[in-house]
Amino acid sequence: MAGRFTPPSRTAVRGGWTGVARATGQPAVAGAAPGPGRPAGAGGRSRTWAPDGPVDLGLTLGPLRRGPGDPTFRTTPDGSVWRATRTPQGPGTLRVALGDGGGRVVAEAWGPGADWLLEALPTLLGAGDDPAAFVPRHRLVHASHRRRPGLRLTRTGLVLESLIPTILEQKVTSDEAYRAWRRLVRQYGEPAPGPALPGPGAGPGGSGLYVMPDPRTWLMIPSWDWHRAGVDSKRSGTILRAVRVAARLEEAAAMALPEAARRLELVPGIGPWTSAETLQRSNGAADAVTTGDLHLPGIIGYALAGDRDADDDRMLALLEPYAGQRHRAARLILLAGPTPPRRTPKMRKTDIARW
C-alpha cells in the first residue's frame, strides 16, 4: 500500500477517545493486579473506536503472532487480544476487544508508548485497508472471501518488530524459529507494562508479556546465546546488520511498497521473501506476495489450478488477476484450506544449540 503512515487525529475517527488521561487503578482482566515496579493506581489509557465495517480481531491481528507462546502476543478467554511492542515513544502494551456486539472496538494501553498505540489503533485494525477493492476471480477464493467479511490487513507502522522474527524464520522450520524468538525476547527483552494477565506464563507479579529488545540490546547479544537459541551465524549476522541501520529501515513504513522493499533489501541477507513477509505486517501491503517460499507456490497452484508442482512464476501467473491485492488473495487461499498431498519428507529440524 502506498502512502505515509500517519495515525489518525483524535477528532477524525468515529467513536473518539474516552478517558485519555484516565488512571484506571483497576486491572483490565478479572483477577489481574498491577505489575512489578508500577505503583497501584498508575493505570492505562483507553479509546473506543467504531470501524466502518466488520473486523475479526483474530484474522486481522493473527499474523503478528509468532507461534504459540509468543511472549509479545496473547489472547485471553474473554476474546481480548494483548500485544506488547516497542513504539517510537517507548514500550507499550495494547489490549483490544470488541464491544456492542462487534460494532465498537475498545482498547486500553499502558506504558510510555500508550498514546502512540491508541493513535495507531484504527490503522492497526485495517482502517487504511480497502477490502472493497478486492474482486474474487475463482470460486474457492470467492467462498473464502464470503465466509470472512471481518478480514482486514493490519498495518503496524513498525518495521523492525516484524523484520527480526521474519529473519529468524529464514531456511528453518516454524517451530525452530518460534523457539528462537521466544528465548531471545524473554532473555533480552523487558517485561511489558500493564496489568498481570491470567493464564500460562504469567507468573507471580508479572504479565508474562515481554517487549522485544531495542536495537542496542540486539547488538550486545553474545554469539553463544545466538547459538543456544538455535540461530546460525547467517541469520544472526543479518539481524545485526539490520539493527545497525534500524532508523533507516523504520522509514520504510512510510514508503510505497516498491521503495520500501528496496530499502529493506539493501541489507545483505534480506531478500524478496523477507521483505514481503515484513511489509505485509508493517505496511499492510495488500500486493506484497511472498516469493521464494518452500510451500506457498504449490498450495496456490493446487488450489487454483490443481498444479501441486507450481513454482514462483506459475504462482505469480495464477495471481495476476488479483494484481494490487495478491497478498489478500494468497491469505484467503491459505484460509480456505486445500493443500496438495505431501510427497516429500518434512523439512529436517537442525537444532544447532545441541551441536
Automatic annotation (TrEMBL):
This is DNA-3-methyladenine glycosylase 2 family protein. Keywords: DNA damage, DNA repair. PANTHER family: DNA GLYCOSYLASE, DNA-3-METHYLADENINE GLYCOSYLASE. Residues 24-35 have a biased composition (Low complexity). The keyword Plastid does not apply. It comes from Streptomyces antimicrobicus. Residues 24-53 are annotated as: Disordered.
